[in-house]
C-alpha cells in the first residue's frame, strides 16, 4: 500500500489536493493510505516551505500548487 501525504494546514488548496489525490489513486487502481500532515514543524522537517505539498512514500513530489488528477496519477 502506497503512502501519500498531503502537507498543509487545511486551506482550500490543501483540501482540493487531497480530493485530487484520492481520485487519482482510485482511477489508477492504486491501494493507498492518504495522510494529512498539518503540523508546521513536520512540514518544515520535510523541507517544505510553501503549501500545499504532496509526498509519495515520504518523498516530496510537488510544492506550492494543486496538481491535477492526471499529474498525480503519473507520480503513483
Describe the structure.
The protein has helices at about 10-30, 40-45, 70-75; strands at about 1-5, 30-35, 55, 60-65. The model has no long low-confidence stretch (mean pLDDT about 95). The protein contains three helices and four strands; from the N terminus they run βαβαββα. The chain has a single domain (about 1-75), classed as Glutaredoxin. The chain has a four-stranded mixed sheet with strand order 2-1-3-4. Helix 1 packs across helix 3. Helix content is about 40%, strand content about 30%. With about 80 residues, it is of the alpha+beta class.
Question: What's the topology here?
Answer:
Layout: E1 2-7, H1 12-28, E2 32-37, H2 40-45, E3 53-56, E4 59-63, H3 69-75
Parallel strand pairs: 1-2
Antiparallel strand pairs: 1-3, 3-4
Helix pairs in contact: 1-3
Keywords:
76 residues, alpha+beta, Glutaredoxin, four-stranded mixed beta sheet, globular
Topology as a string of helices (H) and strands (E)? EHEHEEH
Number of domains: 1
CATH superfamily: Glutaredoxin
How helical, in percent, are the residues? 25-40%
Tell me the name of the CATH class. Alpha Beta
Rg measurement, Å: 11 Å
Structure at a glance:
The protein has 76 residues and is α+β, with helices and mostly antiparallel strands. It has helices at 12-28, 40-45, 69-75; strands at 2-7, 32-37, 53-56, 59-63. It has a single domain, classed as Glutaredoxin.
Amino acid at each position: 500500500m502506497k503512502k501519500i501525504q498531503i502537507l498543509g494546514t487545511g486551506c482550500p488548496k490543501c483540501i482540493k489536493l487531497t480530493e485530487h489525490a484520492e481520485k487519482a489513486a482510485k482511477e489508477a487502481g492504486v491501494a493507498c493510505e492518504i495522510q494529512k500532515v498539518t503540523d508546521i514543524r513536520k512540514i518544515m522537517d520535510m523541507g517544505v516551505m510553501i503549501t500545499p505539498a504532496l509526498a509519495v512514500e515520504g518523498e516530496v513530489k510537488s510544492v506550492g500548487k494543486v496538481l491535477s488528477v492526471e499529474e498525480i496519477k503519473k507520480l503513483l
